[in-house]
Amino acid sequence: MNVSATQMSRGLCGILPFDRLMGMITLKADSVCADGLSWGYKTMDFDAALVAHADWKRKLKAYLEKPDRSLQAAEVALDNKCKLGEWITGEGRKHAASPLFKTLTAEHARFHKAAAELVRRANLGEKVNGEVALGASSEFTKATVAVVSAITEMKKNA
After folding, report:
1. Could you tell me the CA-to-CA distances from 68 to 14, 100, 124, 137 in Å, in that order?
2. Could you tell me where the beta strands, DSSP code E, fall in the chain?
3. Is residue 49 pLDDT above 90, yes or no?
4. How many structural domains is the chain composed of?
5. Cβ atoms of 118 and 128 closer than 8 Å
6. Sign of torsion, CA 53 8 1 103?
7. CA distance 80 to 113
8. Which residue blocks in the chain are alpha helix, DSSP H?
9. Residue 158 near residue 44, CB atoms below 8 Å
10. Which of 31, 32, 35, 151 has the most neighbouring CB atoms within 10 Å?
11. Please, are residues 12 and 25 in contact by the beta-carbon 8 Å criterion?
12. Exposed/middle/buried for 119, CB within 10 Å: 0-12, 13-18, 19+?
């Protein structure tokens, strides 16, 4: 079943439980690689990018509950190390003149910055309430929804 941007956004904002959202997403078995996502060398699998960025909410929530320093803010802040970031700074650069690409690039950087800030605070020993930090009005969720929207628009125009 294909997931619309609205459904993805609702899941990210906590309206639709993440597990239910993930159950709605299917990837073709022949295109899935070892990490469970499909990424092309020359092309971008936007569906896989949606899944990967949606998964950060769950990962970050678990980390904020028990910060063990397995995440470092400086590494999380790097927006060119994940698969989407690698595509943006690599093959995707051919779309650099596109306003959609510029939006995707900016919102993707915002997403990493918001996630890194939460990790930084948790690593400093601050008690970061996951429900507040990841709630519908949080910077992380706003950035996540913006990334999902930008990915969805890029996918429509790919």
Report:
1. 25, 37, 11, 26
2. none
3. no
4. 1
5. yes
6. negative
7. 12
8. 5-12, 18-24, 46-65, 73-76, 83-89, 99-123, 130-133, 139-157
9. yes
10. 151
11. no
12. buried
Statement: the pTM of the whole predicted model exceeds 0.85: no
Q: Tell me the pLDDT tens digit for each residue of 120-155.
A: 999 999 999 877 888 888 999 999 999 999 988 888
Residue closest to 112 by CA, chosen among 58, 71, 65, 75: 75
- 78 phi and psi, to 5 degrees? -70, 110
CB count in 10 Å sphere of residue 17: 11
Rounded Cα–Cα distance for residues 40 and 53 (Å)? 17
Q: Cα separation of 23 and 68, whole Å? A: 29
Q: Cα(124)–Cα(138) distance, rounded to whole angstroms?
A: 20
Supply angle C-alpha 132, 154, 112, rounded to 5: 35
Which structural domain, as residue segments, surrounds residue 46?
A: 5-157
The one-character DSSP state at 136 is T
pLDDT tens for 94-109 read: 889 999 999 999 999 9
Please tell me the distance from the alpha carbon of residue 36 to that of residue 83, in angstroms, as a whole number: 12
- Do residues 124 and 115 make contact, with C-beta atoms less than 8 angstroms apart? no
- Residues 96 and 149: beta-carbon distance below 8 Å: no
